[in-house]
Amino acid sequence: MKAKAVTIVCIVIAVGVGVLWWRMQHADDDAGAELTVYGNIDIRQVELSFHDPEHIAQMLVKEGDRVTKGQLLAVQDLDRFQYAVDIAAARVEAQWQVVARLVTGSRPEDIGKARADTRVGEADVVFAEKEYRRMLELSKKKFVSAEEADRARAQLDEARARLKALQEVLERTVTGPRKEDIAAAKAELKEKESALKLARRVLADAHIYAPSDGVIQDRILEPGDMADAKTPVYTLALVDPVWARTYVSERYLGKLHPGMSARITTDSHPGKVYPGWVGFISPTAEFTPKAVETPELRTSLVYQVRVFACNPEDELRLGMPVTVVIPLDAAADGRNASGKDACQKQ
Which of 5, 128, 205, 325 has the most Cβ atoms closer than 10 angstroms to its Cβ? Predict the structure, then answer.
């Protein structure tokens, strides 16, 4: 009888332990279907630099300044770049004139001159022929030497060759430029126009504009410094959107989806809730970073999750510790990382 009572007590204890273990394993599920994770605010950074080497002429903003997309931030010394633009523009204009001359063809004045030159050549040939015949007759009668007759023949041949060249010039002048010459001139014009576009692009690249809204985090160089593509001038923090970098265990991975709503709180502003949404879930696991304060074991494999936050008053700063609560029973509503549009849905 006593042994039976002990057996019953053991069974009761075993059942109690089992129930306790089950409740511990499902404590989070009983806590309102919400996942609480911890992390830090993270933002993107852009290093801004010039494309070509030159001294800096102006630095227009400093650390902490808020800038808008398209705002001018810095300018290099522009003289050398402007000279290159002027030279390229002059070469384009000169080549335009070459193409226009070839396309237009020969002017009436040019044709008239070529014809006049041809008539002069014809007259020279007639004179040279008469002189040669005269010298040939005198040579037969021994009044002049044979060398003089040969010299007259050479002058006749020279006059005939010059007339042939003048006739070819007249023919080319009347016909006009060849199609191949016009095509070559147009191709050279295109090359010079491309060189002008490149020079203007180099001039434009001597200016740094803000690629997005943000805050100047670092001002690295100063006016007078030599700047090039390898040396950043500013570091720009892109503060819209910002996100909380958090980590979750594999147990909750299947319950999270991009677009799920979330609530973000900080110790800096107690009681204030920043609306957010799940924007990114890492496809690979990693060990929990030491910087993350989480009740999970630090040796557990976790997955990185970015929870984007609405930050209209710029109260969430880089590196700030945050607590993120994600309702696991909420359906994803299609939010993404577009920032302003997503925050307007909150």
Answer: 128
Q: Which sign does the torsion angle of CA 205, 207, 213, 214 carry?
A: positive
Same domain, 97 and 240: no
The rounded mean pLDDT for the chain is 81
| Cβ–Cβ < 8 Å for 240, 46 | no
How long a stretch of residues is the chain?
A: 346
Which tokens belong to 29? 């599920």
Tokens of 159: 């006059």
- Contact indicator for 96, 102 with CB cutoff of 8 Å: no
Q: DSSP code of 332? A: P
Task: For residue 10, give the amino acid letter.
Answer: C
pLDDT in tens, 121-144: 888 888 888 888 888 888 777 777
Number of domains in the chain: 3
- In the block, which residue shows the tokens 């030279």? 87
Supply the DSSP string of 158-178, one letter for each residue: HHHHHHHHHHHHHHHHHH-S-
pLDDT of residue 90: 96
Residue 64: give the domain boundaries: 46-77+209-234
